[in-house]
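Hey,

The postdoc asked me to send both predictions to you directly instead of through the lab channel. I've kept everything plain text so nothing gets mangled by the mail client. Protein one:
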Amino acid sequence: MTHLVDMHMHAGFADDPATFAHALADANIASFANTVTPGEYAHLSPILTDIPTMRLGLGLHPWWVDTPELGTLDDALDAFIAQLDTTRFVGEVGLDFWPTRASTKDAQMKAFTCITALCAAKGDVLISMHSVKAERELLDVLEDSECLGRCTCILHSYAGPSDQLSRAVEDGCLFSVGTRMLSTKRGREYARIIPEERLLVESDLPAAAGEPTSVRDVTRSLESVIDGLARIRGTDLERLRESIGARSDVLLGL
């Protein structure tokens, strides 16, 4: 059986990230572990460096863009810039314009515009992106930065408008699909029509810092998504599993 590849998860949210990450590797699960701040990335890098099946993303999540523990936004961006030389994996970054996040919209735009410009200048960066109520603006920034042509851009758990989905497909984006996306009628329809060569799977686990999560939880989540995708798309389960796994391996350099 093809091994599982989790293309968006948060090892740093586990109570013991190193133990959790080693357990995933022992279970034959490869992963793209996203961080939410440059500080989290700096903390996890030496802890997870010896796990060959895990890639750690340098993140500046829109929820954390303007929080006191980061200092100023310029401090956070300076920390991001200083560490980008150490990796070709970036995530989680993006935009979230949900009404409760409206007060940080300008800070989010500044951060994401800076990050995409840096990634485009570096080139060959794999980026996992969060987008809520901001799909048009996110794609505008990606297009303006030339990031789409120089990097590989993944939209994590896409739930935006259908016209922006079509635009993202045309722009060459990939899509990591999880149980949350498959829990809605819109998400299932998107999962049906996204071209197969753009599909990835994710657990997005642990869902929050300190939330109890086992390797079995991750396995069940990924297996459920692959099974759901096969049923929704009317395709052979094992062939789809192999296709998604092989594509993910290439993206992670495994």
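Protein two:
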Amino acid sequence: QENFQVSGYLDIISAFVKPDKFPSSLEDINGRVNFSQDSFRWEALNFKYSGAPYKTSGSLIGFKSPKVELALKSNDLSLDSSLAVNKSLVSLVKLEGKYLNSRFSVSGNIDTSAPSRLGADLNGELDIDAQDLKKLFAKFKNQLEQAKAQGQVNVQFSFNGDINDLKSCALQAKLSSPQLSIYGLKLESLSLDYTQGNGMADIPLMQLSLYEGAAKISAKINLNSQNIPYLVILDMQGVKLEKLKMDTGASQKDIAGALSSQIKINGFYGDISSLSGSGNILIAEGKLWQLNLFKGLGSLIFARDFADITFKEGSCGFLIKDKQILSENITLKSNIADISGSARIGFDSSLDASLNVKILDEMVPLSGGFKDLATAIMGEAGRFGIIKVSGTLKEPKYKFKPAVVDIIKGLKDIIFGK
């Protein structure tokens, strides 16, 4: 009786199986399974899942504490795994493979002892082709197509916690990419550290190269709160606008300059009306006249081809609150004119600005209307007027108000001498 052995094989033809918690059935199962007293082996078992054909091979040895080897292949997926089961503990020795153009490798332990909890202690590495995300996360396909993500991202991670409650898990990850494109913008030499624990997500540092400049970002997110509050801090230095514009709708416009900025914002996830923050922007050696906002402004001030005028410096500090961006200290400086003032830009793109214009060069070839008058009277540097800007960022409207006091002073100086 002790030497009694059982062995044989089972041919499966056009079988159908619906495993629990699987969204779809395994259909058209065909192949041979060899069995013995304490094992199963299969060399080429074919089936269809969600209409796609798969082929699998592997073995299961020991029914009390089984060890499983499983290989799986389809047009999109290849997988090779090895695991051991001891009661409710699954030791994942190896789970590696390829999905489309992305690769993955995971190992660790999974605890299935609690019916409502799937505890995991895993380590792994992912090499993700960003274009594969559209198929992997089909639910968000439209958003991902709009993002136009391209490039390879490497992720190394360690994970501990309940897979069914990701917010409460402990997670550490490092992301890197030599070049990643999102919404058409090229991010180079990207690196990001991510930690998560006790319901708090933290990005202590994300840094990247951006159009010959550099950017550093840090962020914190409270995942435990129902509103999911967050804080983001950005420090950007030396981004070349003439390079950046080539990947935007302004590629044909004569725009240039080195952009630097520090921004701090906070709010609640999914609620843009809650956004608040502050920051400053600096543009050195800027050519901005072909932007919608400045085009009408330039034609109002200058008679000659103002597109060639370069600002030595453009800067502003700003606040974000009450669904609008507010600045009280906009400054644009050139060798011909200085512009300063305040502005309000609504989240709905509405625009309200008041800008003081000061002519610096008596040789500026102004002509027509207030321009002739200002040139005749203001032989030296003086105030030219106030320009009111309304409308929207896409279609700004301008209204000119001359500096009457300065004009009267200029007339007095001409008539009576200084």
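Summary for protein two, as requested: The longest strand covers residues 271-287.

Thanks,
C.
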